[in-house]
Specification:
Length: about 130
Amino acid sequence: MGAAIAGRWRGRAGANTTRRMAPPYERHVFVCTNRRPDGSPRGCCATKGGDELRLALKKELDAQEVKGVRINGAGCLDACERGAAVVVYPEQVWYGPVTTQDVQDLVSTHLKQGQVVERLRMALPIVRKKD
Ligand code: FES
C-alpha cells in the first residue's frame, strides 16, 4: 500500500513537485467531534464522546507503538445517528457507534494489523432525522 500511495503523492500545492516525497502517513483516521445545540434531533458526536475518543485513539497508538497513522478530529461526517463516527482511510471503512471502550481493539486490529473490526462497522443505510 505504501509504495502505491508514494507514487501518487507529490506534496503540497505550490511546493516543488519535481521531487516526490514519501507520504507522511499510511492511514488517516477521522473522528467526528462535531457539536450541535442541545436538543438537536440528530444528536452529535461531541455528546457521544467524540473528543474523548479522539484523544484515546492517539494515546493508544502511542501505547501500541503504531506508526504511520494520523488521528484527526473532524466536523460532521453526516452519520450522526451512528456516532461517535469514525472513518479510516485509505480503506474507507466507517465505524460507529464507537466508544473509548473500543479503542484498544480498533488500534490493534485495524490500525496495527490492517483488519477491519466487523463488530464496529457502521450499519448502513443511515436513516437520517431532520435537524
Ligand atoms: S455529528 Fe458526528 S457524524 Fe454528524
